[in-house]
Each structure stands twice: as structure tokens, then as C-alpha cells.
Amino acid sequence: MDWAPNREVNVYPLSKKYTFALACRLFMSIKDFKHVAKVAHPFHLITSGLVSVPIDFLGVPFNHAKKGGKMLRDENDKGLNDMEISDKIVGLFLASFGSISATLTFVLNYLPEFLDVHDKTYWSVHTTNRNPKYFLDPEKFDPSRFGGKGPAPYTFVPFGGGPRLCPRKEYS
After folding, report:
1. Per the structure, how many domains does the chain have?
2. How many Cα atoms are found within 13 Å in the side-chain-facing hemisphere of 45?
């Protein structure tokens, strides 16, 4: 929504918005963009005051952080200790949101300059399981390729149920 219609974008604010929405979905099951925006404001107030002088005057970052914390606690409807919930939520968001936003920004900034790195590091189940370097005629159904010693380590990534590995395991 925010990226595609634009010819040019300021990546860092958009990556922060994206990772915040993703954190809302993962940590609090919030999918509605209006609700994400409602939670974003107090969270940004809190983060702005995290490394500030702890003086509680109107208009200073510490004061904003206290207000943001109160706003998030007031949103709590789970019947748990408000302070514990808000501390855990802020901790989860800080651990995920800030560093991932910065990382995404750097990746998007430098990737066009180093496309060869992308080609060398890109991995997918499809490209691994169908690589002719490891499997002769990889598109052909040939169960005998798994006989004997089987494929070399890390050249075949099975997936599905039972004892097989899920490809998302590596991404997690």
C-alpha cells in the first residue's frame, strides 16, 4: 500500500511502519490497520523516552513515554497485571521492531549495488531441490537418486509432515 504506488520512497520510515505492523500481528494478533495505528502512537511515545533524562515535565520525552505507557495499559482488557503486560509488549517490540527496521533499510539500500551477493546468498527449497549441480535431470521423477548414501548434506530439503523438515525452520 505504501510502497508500490510511489516512484521513490523514504525506506526507513516505511520499514519501521511495516515491521511495527508485523510485530502487532505476531505478538498481539492485531491485523486491522486502524488498530495498529492506534497502538503505534503510544508505542512511539514510549520509545522516544527510553533513553532520555528521567525528568517528568510536560513536553519532554520522558513525560511522553509515561503517557504512552499509560495509553497502552489503558488498552489492556486481558485481566492481567497491566505493568507486566505493557513491559513485555514494549520489550518484544523493542527487540524486534528497531533492529529489523534498520536491517531492512540497509538491505534495500545496498542490495542494488551488490546483486551478485543476492545471487550467492538467495536460498529456497525450490532452487535447492532442483539444482542440476546436485541432481542429474532434476525435473525427472527418479526415486533411485535417494538410494545408497542419498543426496549430499544440504542439497535436498524435504518438507511436509512426519519426520521431514519444514523449509520455514531455517527462516525462523
Report:
1. 2
2. 19
Which residue from 35, 60, 37 is spatially nearest to 49, judged by alpha carbons?
60
Distances (CA, A) of 156 to 81, 85, 164: 48, 43, 11
- Model pLDDT for residues 69-125, shown as the tens digit of each residue: 777 667 655 555 667 776 777 777 776 667 778 888 888 888 788 777 666 666 666
Look up the pTM and report it: 0.51
Cα angle 43, 46, 48; round to 5: 110
**Domain boundary residue among 83, 114, 145?**
114
Q: N- to C-terminal Cα distance for the chain?
A: 26
For residues 45 and 65, is the Cβ–Cβ distance under 8 A?
Answer: yes
